[in-house]
Amino acid sequence: VSLNSDRIYITLTDEARQEELEENGQIANTGNIWSQMQEQIQTGSGDEEAERDPDYYTGYVNDYTLVERLDEAGVEFKSQPADTVGQTLLELFLTVILPIGLMAAMLVWLMRKMTKGGGVMGIGKSNAKMYMEKETGVTFQDVAGEDEAKESLQEVVDFLHNPGKYSGIGAKLPKGALLVGPPGTGKTLLAKAVAGEAKVPFFSLSGSAFVEMYVGVGASRVRDLFKQAQQQAPCIVFIDEIDAIGKTRDSSLGGNDEREQTLNQLLAEMDGFDTNKGLLILAATNRPEILDPALLRPGRFDRRIIVDKPDLKGRVEILKVHAKDVRMDESVDLEAIALATSGAVGSDLANMINEAAINAVKHGRQVVSQKDLFEAVEVVLVGKEKKDRIMSKEERQIVSYHEVGHALVTALQKNTEPVQKITIVPRTMGALGYVMQTPEEEKFLNTKKELEAMIVVALGGRAAEEIVFDTVTTGAANDIEQATKIARAMITQYGMSERFGLMGLESIQNRYLDGRAVLNCGDATAGEIDEEVMKMLKGAYAEAKKLLAENREALDKIAAFLIEKETITGKEFMKIFREVKGIPEPDETEESSSTEREGRIVMKDGE
């Protein structure tokens, strides 16, 4: 018997081998013969082992008494260590070498990735995107509606092209220009246009790209950015949303030291480079009031360029830019669309053109019509028609009278914009109905009479509900909010209150974002302001109820027509109104000039 770590080999003696041959005619070299081996041990056979190949073998058996019993039976046996060299090498490879190799490969991959993307190994590297010369694909021809901003930036471009013309007289290239304006007005587009016109490398990154969880990373990235920029000079560096790192520093203990270090490094770098090399820093923000004064002083951002919401002329130009690649019907009047979108920014207008094209395809038309454009205006402002929302008969009546109340109060007052459309079709942004009005011309100022008329119009829907149904609903929530906002502004900002006179009681913060108003008075004065607002709203509501009560017949007839049609035009509204009031119809040209244009949404009533 020969024992090793994985098998037991058994070699028969000559006598046992002869007996096996006599019984079976051959030696049966089977696999597992543990039971036969047990018998041989008990009988004492197998005491002599010949030097030949084993006759039997069995797998390893976990029997701690085997050696002792073999010895007692007189069986010659020996223990041989298994040949485990190959097995040991395999185990070593699988358990040690392979895992270490995989970990090393993964570590190398991570290091390379981090070095490129600003990870642990390259965390101090700038991750600015660099567009070489024509890669921006934008020129000043692609920017419309911001003539003043373009003019200021064209001077910078001319300086990059012809530095000698300016240096000869002693002029220096401005180190930086800060683009300030509301979101969507085209600040980033203007920066790319400057690079496209100047045909120089353009580095673009966000202010938040400097900020990391590790101390000192922001300052390191600023240094790396300016190092790259100086190597590529002349070039332009554009930092979008610079307020992320340029907020005013203070002495509070809870200040962000990392952000301040980044800002300090930026200030130092802007002082350190030579403008004669043609390195220009552009930055954009919609919160200029929170930027550190040191960042805004001359010698750093020498120019502050306002990129405000476009006026009527600017909106027309923007619409033309975005419509040049869209097939338009010959009857399309972009000026009417521009009048309808007062307050819209460039991104809104681009979206409207695209929505109009989608709507034309949806209805199987080959060109975009004026109807498609006005539908797109409504989609952007109040959402798409919610056709699956079915209102009850009672709710349709309430919404109909509510909207006609707005429209009728508008028609009965001076200093208001003509009604263009009334609808009770729900929209996806929550409006159950709305009245659309159009300005006859763009205005930049409002008189006190006009503001008072706006409040009366806003409360006209609520007044119609109370007159007709002797109750009120939640549909006037947006109206009340608008009316309150106008009344409060008249008292606190415009000096249109007899009680407070010319006292400025509110200031506007975040003018380019939400324009949140903050009171500059004590609690007692704030309470008096609320009383004055309440008084103004009550007077306007009483005026709206008076106008509608005196014109109840027109209110009922127009509301019934609206319930039947769901949507009526300004022409249809005015026709019924004139019939009830006995007013003769105007000439065709006069009516066209006053009521045919569609306009901006001023009333929106939701759930």
TrEMBL record:
- State where composition is biased (Basic and acidic residues): 594-607
Q: Which domain of life is it from?
A: Bacteria
Q: Name one Pfam family in it.
A: Peptidase_M41
Record SMART domains: AAA
Q: Which residues form the AAA+ ATPase domain?
A: 173-311
Q: Which cofactor does it need?
A: Zn(2+)
Q: Does the keyword Nucleotide-binding apply?
A: yes
Where does this protein reside within or beyond the cell? Membrane
Q: Name one GO biological process term.
A: proteolysis
Q: InterPro entries given for it?
A: AAA+_ATPase (IPR003593), AAA_lid_3 (IPR041569), ATPase_AAA_core (IPR003959), ATPase_AAA_CS (IPR003960), FtsH (IPR005936), P-loop_NTPase (IPR027417), Peptidase_M41 (IPR000642), Peptidase_M41-like (IPR037219)
Name the segments for region: Disordered: 581-607
- Coiled-coil region(s) at which residues? none
NCBIfam families assigned: FtsH_fam (TIGR01241)
The family assignment reads: Belongs to the AAA ATPase family.
Name the UniProt record assigns to this protein: ATP-dependent zinc metalloprotease FtsH
Q: Which gene specifies this protein's sequence?
A: ftsH
